[in-house]
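Could you help me review a protein record that somebody else here produced? What it holds is a sequence and that sequence's fold in token form. I need someone to confirm that the token line plausibly describes how this chain folds. Take the sequence as given and treat only the tokens as open to question. This is what I was given:
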Amino acid sequence: MAKEINKIDEFIKKVQDSKKENKLDLSSDEDLSIAIMNLVSIEEHFFFTAKKTGNDKYFDLLKEVREMRKDLLKKIIKEYEGEVWCISKHLLASSMRLMEVGTKALGRGNDKEAKEMFEKAYNLYSLFWGLNLKVVDIKNIEKIEDGKLNNTDSDKKGVFAKLGGLVKKAVDCCIE
């Protein structure tokens, strides 16, 4: 457990040092990730509108929005291997959709369901940052016990809880 805390402390220190040197602006990147989520939603809406109306011009708009989303995603995901790019896009899209489902549940007065959806949305969002900030070590992947980040992790708190804690500490959207 102490070893894991040291790793988290080291990660937070690296993030803070990078902020000071203006190498990393997670506040802007977090804003950008939310914008990208909305662009994915816009792509979906253009698709469904094209199909529902039979007007193929919406596909042209979808194509333009998709290109914008790809360009913006490159600003956050600078290096990736395999399907991490696509995984990242889908993590953001799923997170956004779960937030919307949670918001609708909240509007219906179903606070419990809303909270569950928000938790899942935040878990996916945290996984996005964990992958792209390279907090999740995917080298030499092997089967590990449920809830652990790696084989040396003695805390069975859960991957999402740990990543969520890291994101809370590292990403502060209120820094101007």
